[in-house]
Amino acid sequence: VQSTRIAVTPGDGIGPEVVAEAVRCLEILRAKHGLALEWTRFPWPSHAWHEENGESWPSDALEQLKQYDAILLGALGDPGPMDDPDRYLLPDSISLAPLLDMRKGFDQWVCERPARLLDGARQYLADERAKNIDMLVIRENSEGEYVSQGGRLRQGTPDEVATQMEVFTRKATDRIIRYGFEQARRRAEERVRDGRTRSFRTLDGKTCESQVCLVTKRNALRYWGDMYTEAFEAISKEYPDVATHHELVDAACMKFVQAPWAFDVVVASNLQGDILTDLAAVLSGGMGVAPSCNLNPTDSNMPSMFEPTHGSAPDIAGQGLADPTAMLFTTARMLEWLGRKDPTLAAAGKELFDAVAADLAENAGTQRGTHEIGQAICKRLEA
Amino acid sequence: VQSTRIAVTPGDGIGPEVVAEAVRCLEILRAKHGLALEWTRFPWPSHAWHEENGESWPSDALEQLKQYDAILLGALGDPGPMDDPDRYLLPDSISLAPLLDMRKGFDQWVCERPARLLDGARQYLADERAKNIDMLVIRENSEGEYVSQGGRLRQGTPDEVATQMEVFTRKATDRIIRYGFEQARRRAEERVRDGRTRSFRTLDGKTCESQVCLVTKRNALRYWGDMYTEAFEAISKEYPDVATHHELVDAACMKFVQAPWAFDVVVASNLQGDILTDLAAVLSGGMGVAPSCNLNPTDSNMPSMFEPTHGSAPDIAGQGLADPTAMLFTTARMLEWLGRKDPTLAAAGKELFDAVAADLAENAGTQRGTHEIGQAICKRLEA
Ligand SMILES: CC(C)[C@H](C(=O)O)[C@@H](O)C(=O)O
Ligand SMILES: CC(C)[C@H](C(=O)O)[C@@H](O)C(=O)O
């Protein structure tokens, strides 16, 4: 087998700390199973590059990363030296640029964030049914509110007008909705196989094993809201086995809190998906455990990118306090994704997922440092 | 005193049912205190108008309503006869039009939604500190994502492009931010008076009695995000007694779930405010109790509009099941607002609020119908 090659980009803040644990786990899995897996480290802290050339990453970063099969990212976002208020704060829009550049440059048009309340994860909701949360939020990741078109007229004056354009194409809409239905089917098959069936009612009284809920704000943002709705209705006809549902984003946020266990697959636009995934993450235990991935499922020449949902948390960086669990779940998901070409990687991904989940379940509520958690999981993998 | 005049628009679905209870309470309060208060009922169900002329309300609705000091709205949104699938579903964008028309037409540029977890209200969060939730979400209600500019190119084809423009002016930004700081001060004064002080830390280590948190998504939607941030920084200098804070909307939603008791006043854009207010509503007991108002604080010739946060709930309409609590809190807030001119109305508003809150506290968890709840509150007012 040709080796699968990963670009490891630790990034800023707690990024390098949690990535170190991920790399340790990868080393153990590689040695244990003789995986055909290689990785290269790109230590590109935003601040260093910014001081040199005003950018947050080298200008040929995308070309370099394109050589790899996947990118494993720690976290981006660097507010500068926190103890030196006289130096500039690196604006978010600079230090986060590589994130949005990669999503765009590699056309990672799916952002996938599964939410399950695993044993040992913190439960914010009072209702015990929260234990049954098992949803997959799929965010359109290539256009919409994030196209960065617009500007500021009469900037800085009392007459200023700022515009921000949202641009949605039917092509990107169709592909993300279809992806949602495919994931719903895949999840249904998995559940049936594992004997954990669920049941969703359609409007005409049928019962289905899975559901896709489309989220829009079509009563107020109606141009793309209507297009999304029409695309959803057309594509749903190809999936009569999947129940469909439509929520407005404000109601969806409410229902995420009231009955998150009622959702299966949720499809949303770039910004609304950003909001819903953060909400789903907290409902399933918080940023410490939430994995995330930015996928290009259609072009195998383009690397997908895997990053925890959390940010760089500069306030606790360098202290060994960050929870590496989200990073390790993210790494497991990356292996699973790479397993589409090399099944041994998928198996390793599952093994890593199980080890992290077992560690979480066993240590609920205990205070442990970054390395301590990583170490415990490594031990499990070595056992 | 010249009479204060209210336009009562029951609207659709459960609207007329909950409004009936509100009117009963108003009648009692008027008789009891000899209030100089009049109202006129405008029974404009969306469906009837739509069948006649394709609109959801009469074309001169705004002119008629402009004659009043305030509008008390039940709910809008009519999906058509639910038992007759052969007839059209009235699209949301038609039946909700009057809501957005009033906000625009009367320049109701503030949408205010207080969130307190009152005794007896349902608590969705596990953490007991949720009892301390006491925030006011202030939504910019006149522009931004809701300007309805945009369109659909090549509509219905695979090459379709839908655009939606967001337009933000510095003028509207300044006024909503300043309004937020004023509310923070007012709330601080109230708390100090009632001996319920709170304390918020500023970045430079000072402690303040109140806080304004600005929500944007400036790391992705940077044109207006930057303008909002600059306006916020400039205006905050006029309020050195108020602590400031900035959250990105995704993180704000997360923190609403993790620690909603840490927020005081929250200022957000039209769409992000829409999302945050629904979330705040559910965290403080859900739609059954959440009041809302659309205010024009600057032009006394323009009526403000008061509506519960909930919708028309067509699935339970006509059955006497809807909880009128949110409508009654909304009515109390209207009286309080109208009390700026006539203090007897403010006192009546407070009396109504207290009666509704007492009823809620006493009947936590019991199943009661619309009229039963209304009746109990009327009895309290008569006592
Ligand atoms: C950092 C930011 C630009 C990013 C986003 O909004 O997409 C983040 O919130 C995320 O969800 O990955
Ligand atoms: C009905 C809808 C257009 C409205 C809005 O988005 O403003 C509603 O959600 C609200 O919050 O009042």
UniProtKB/TrEMBL annotation, chains A, B:
Database matches in PANTHER family: D-MALATE DEHYDROGENASE [DECARBOXYLATING]
Superkingdom classification of source: Bacteria
Listed InterPro entries: ICDH/IPMDH, IsoPropMal-DH-like_dom
MF GO annotations: metal ion binding; oxidoreductase activity
Gene3D superfamilies (alphabetical): Isopropylmalate Dehydrogenase
Alphabetically ordered keywords of this record: Manganese, Metal-binding, NAD, Oxidoreductase
Cofactor needs: Mg(2+); Mn(2+)
Record-given protein name: Tartrate dehydrogenase/decarboxylase / D-malate dehydrogenase
Domain (Isopropylmalate dehydrogenase-like): residue spans on this chain: 5-377
